[in-house]
Protein 1
Amino acid sequence: MIKVTFIASDGRTFPVEIGEGLTAREAALFNDVPGIDGDCGGQCACATCHVLVDPAWIDQVGRLAEDSMEADLLQFAEGTTAQSRLACQVKLDARLDGIVLHVPEQQY
Amino acid sequence: MTTLTISPDQDSAELSRFVAGIPLAEIDVSRPSLFQSDKIGAFFERLRREDPVHYCAESSYGPYWSITRYDDIMAVDTNHKVYSSEAKLGGIAIQDMHSDQSNLELEMFIAMDQPKHDAQRKAVTPAVAPSNLLLLEPVIRERAGAILDALPVGEEIDWVKSVSVELTTMTLATLFDFPWDERARLTRWSDVTTAIPGAGIVDSFEQRREELIECAMYFKGLWDQRTDQPGGTDLISMMANSPATRDMPFLEFLGNLLLLIVGGNDTTRNSISGGVLALNRHPDQYDKLRRDPALIGSMVPEIIRWQTPLTHMRRTALEDSEIGGKRIAKGEKVVMWYLSGNRDETAIEQPEEFIIDRKNPRQHLSFGYGIHRCMGNRLAELQLRIIWEEIQKRFHFVEVVGEPERLLSNLVRGITRLPVKLHAH
Ligand code: HEM
Ligand code: FES
């Protein structure tokens, strides 16, 4: 199991566990973390799973690739930063055990 | 091509047999009458099963491809580099956009490709951010309540005319802080924007042009009044004062403004009507709703799936490509039938059923996906949620007492008349 901590914009924390190989979107949805809807089913097509990767973890996760579908979608999202990613594109493996993800104040 | 005669009282088994007998190559799902009679589902069902990426060589709109399965639609919608929305190539509907007849060509980013689409969408997005719109919630709620309170209980009324149109016009007027007494003009301009001369709204392109110029002047007045008056939370104030949009060329501003009006007009109206129809056809779900009004949160996206207010969006292939094993040539017209994808049992459990507490109610195609995904999707849900909360407060049963009448259109899945009787609590 991989440990993931989601931190809401109001400071509430949601520590969850999820099987290796699944994504941060599933970690949030399976545990009812508020603010992450994931409308498209994780197909990188809706941008309703936007998270801000904690600065301590962004290098392990990797930054948004330029010219990707993910970047095309995130340009319309609110509250994006250099740590923005779509949770459905963050696959959880052992290297990411303990990762901290922030849920932006507004998602759409 | 064979002319099909479908009698209105044909039952669904009979209809399926009939559809099964048509040679595949002759199936043309673009005929507006199939939508008006609501028989289109049987055609899509056969295509999904036997020929999910279907070529129709001859139709009133020329040759076109139909994409009927959920996954294939998703693949086209998310591949904007190959499948273009550009107006000059024909745009976003099976009927090509007319780019020559009218001298007032409104540029709207829904029918643009990257990079222009992205720049414009980015500029307008903050205006419809739900956090901003939440500020308008109390006004929308109060005005919705007033419209509903004025309705006669126990008498037959047309839900579309008395409620759906009124509520939609009211929410639009509120979003734009449009002069209240003149709010019917908003609906008129929305209709005129999408009108094809001779189809009932306007008689000629000149008339359309004149009305749109009048609309432009009117909005110019509102824009000027609201410029340099910070603090307004309506969409015009926001666009007139935000650095991203304040210096927009006027015609661009008008195009974007009308896109916001048009985008939210028919779609919201038909979702309000469709919801009443769906609940009446599924009384067990209506009971569920009465027992637990909190289900409105998941019912709203389910209504939007069930109704599918826009049956399709179209793209034009920019290069040769392949979908579901079929070769699509550069320049060909590709139609994503959202209405079909939303009934695809390989993607959605019991897709024919209306289930207000579905597990993943937002996994539907009604808003499209990818870079053109509906910009107003959360706004639409917000409006519908408020409206349904107010309806549930007042009425135990909005009873459909006659057959609905449907719009003759292959794009807008519209209900034009819905006789109902209201029962108070
Ligand atoms: C239930 C109601 C609604 C439905 C079903 C709906 C559906 C759609 C669809 C199918 C698209 C095109 C997606 C594509 O081409 O892939 C779209 C785009 C759009 N919609 Fe909506 N819509 C609704 C309500 C609204 C509202 C209330 C607004 C007003 C803010 C709005 C504004 C827009 C805009 C601006 C676009 C263009 C987005 C782009 O091209 O990037 N829509 N909508
Ligand atoms: S769930 Fe849709 S983009 Fe991640």
Protein 2
Amino acid sequence: MQESKYLVVGSSHAALQAIIAIRKRDVDGSLTVLTREPRLPYSPTILPYIVSSQKQPDDISLCDEAHFARNNVTLVRGTTVTAVQPDTKIVRTGSGDEWRYDRLLLATGASPATPPIPGLREVPFHVLRTMNDAIELRDALRHAASAVVIGGGLCAMHAVESMAKAGITVTVVEICDRILRECASPRAGEMIARSFMAEGIEIRTNRSPVAVAREAGKYVVTLNDGATIVADLLMVAAGVKPVTDYLVGSGVKVNRGIVVDELMRTSEPGIWAAGDVAETPGFWGGGVVNGILPGAAAQGRTAGANMADGNGTERYAGAIPLNTYHFFGHHLISVGINQPPSEVAGFEIHEDADDDGYIYRQIMLQEGRLVGISTIDDVFDAGIMKHIILGRIDLSPVKAAFLARPREAGRLLMSQMWR
Amino acid sequence: MHKGVGAIHYQRERCQGCLSCMVACAQQKSATNDITQSRIRILMDEVSGAFEVVLCLQCSDPGCVGTCPSGALTKNGETGVIEWDDRRCVGCLLCTVGCAYAGIVYEAEVGHVIKCDICAGRPACSAACAHNALALGTV
Ligand SMILES: Cc1cc2nc3c(=O)[nH]c(=O)nc-3n(C[C@H](O)[C@H](O)[C@H](O)COP(=O)(O)OP(=O)(O)OC[C@H]3O[C@@H](n4cnc5c(N)ncnc54)[C@H](O)[C@@H]3O)c2cc1C
């Protein structure tokens, strides 16, 4: 049995930020990181750049072994946690090792979901979440002429762009009425879809696959409208699900993700969770699995601070959507909501689009306060807008200036506030 | 959030809003007079007439570093400067989500994110300020 005062499971954004936060408050309490990843820490967000060969697997590490040594952290790579016992404070790994902890952080992130499509589980297909996935996909692109991608979210569209740039004919199948729902308003999503279609990519919305088969070395995907798509390569990017399999029977409460409060505490004493695995309070209420890098980083910091302090001084402000997305030379930035929930009144939407010039801006206010801003090729300072939303800053006195020039108005507000 | 050592300190009461600092920065960083290239920005509140500064604070616990997926941003332990590595940057703009001060920003004309690097300890903005409103020091 090995022991560590702080035991962190996972070695990605949430875990790395937690380590920094712990070490700021407790310089020598033993701290161990267990991760199933054999490589040095890297971000899943970087993987599209591996697929496109813009980056090489060894060029993008978030930190090196020296970083862990400097911070007096033991990094145990290639080790999968398989069970957690909160009553005895023991964690078990795939190789049968046991670790006793005093404070445990679960930062195991998410894995691609496999939609229940008949035949899918019987064929090999690509996903994109780990470095191995990215290398396999990159290599497969060299031998494929056509591809079908199931799902039209950020991860999917990143991969689709790489495929198209590699000269592959791509068809995207999206079950919803539009792609990129998580980060684009209907109008912005339409503009983005148009630029993909202009590159020869086919996007089929409101369609779902009803059968997948492999015939004569090709994939045959049958859709609910009866159409079939035949392709050399199949990628599934239809959402992710938090990695919580090791918690079965542990008593740690899991809903869509591991349920945590604003201090990142789980239902069990001595156990915290952060990042894509966690279901946190949402800024506008409810429980949210945020699924974004800035959320994972912020939650990791909050968890680490509270694990070390134990006095609950660091509170998570609540999850809001935050996305920056670069596609075919354009930048989408979206902070907050991009479509008002239908049941809530009092929204003011200012939408301004120049379809030909390819410029888009939407600002959404509720009772004089910013709840969402998104633009295409009209870059603003995302971090400032995030704080304007989280601070519930009343924009009424500067509304006209804010609507006319949000970037400048935002900078002025923030620099006055941080004085 | 903590403010760092080695950041450029702005003294509002001394600033006259002449923008010499922005021109000097643009010249230093891009060899042009194009102030969109400037890593320091002086703003004026048109209502009150007061000046404000927008600049990287070289935070000791930097949010931008924590949201960078490519390892392109690092806090230099010796100088305190947050360094940006253009060879590692993929232009995703996630760093701009992590910064609450617009200390690292994207300018379309420049084509990548830009931030103050205190000119290796000899900031051009500070040298150009006739009113001594900018000094290198601990914030
Ligand atoms: C292709 C792609 C593009 C993306 N683009 C963006 C983007 O543009 N913007 C954005 O904000 N977000 C983006 N994301 C999402 C972002 O990468 C995640 O939100 C972020 O990585 C979450 O960090 P995390 O630390 O919570 O978990 P993860 O990054 O998922 O890491 C989980 C860690 O836990 C380890 N682990 C898992 N299970 C176990 C176990 N049982 N035992 C031990 N270790 C385990 C893993 O090895 C890994 O180290 C993208 C993701 C992908 C896949």
